[in-house]
Amino acid sequence: FDKFKDTAMAIINGPPIVAPDSTHVDSQFSEGDRVVVQTVREKAITGIVRWVGPVKTSREDGGIVVPLVGIETDKKINVDKEFPELHYELTGSHGHRMFPITSNHSRVFLPEQLVLHIDEYTKQKQKDNTYEVREAKKWGMSVEEYRLQKEMLSKRNEERAKDHESVEQRLGVDEMQKQQEAYERIQREHKRRHSE
User: Fold this and answer.
1) Quick one: how far is CA 193 from the chain centroid?
2) Dihedral, CA atoms, 35, 95, 56, 6, nearest 10 degrees?
């Protein structure tokens, strides 16, 4: 078992993967760095990097090496709900945890590209806010009103996309193309009549 001391076992929705020795990793993160990750629910989660290392997937998955960051979150979260199918379950040799965490915190292992240093996250948020302030002023709104309008438009676009998919399913793509062509012919005829 000594040869497995520097090896970690991981599970991504079932298949085992092996993490090589983490001392040979080129990463932008180091243990102790303050970081932020955004959940699938677009919630910002802060924490401290406690482990950095590559993980090699099983042969069945192609043996791909994925650089991971192990984070101790500042608050307890449900990792499966916040990062479904994105996080890795890692345990060290003999099933030991890769790093201890304090109570009311959580342990999550994520691919490096999903993690931001806290100062990088702050800069991105400031850029987003600056853009929103400019756009809100341009349209004579407060930032809150602009955000609300943006959210409402996004929801309406999603509804339209669903409606469009539903029509495609009912009529079939060929029938929709015929209807679109007929509509365009009517529009051209209407324009022609009004231009005479």
Assistant:
1) 51
2) 90
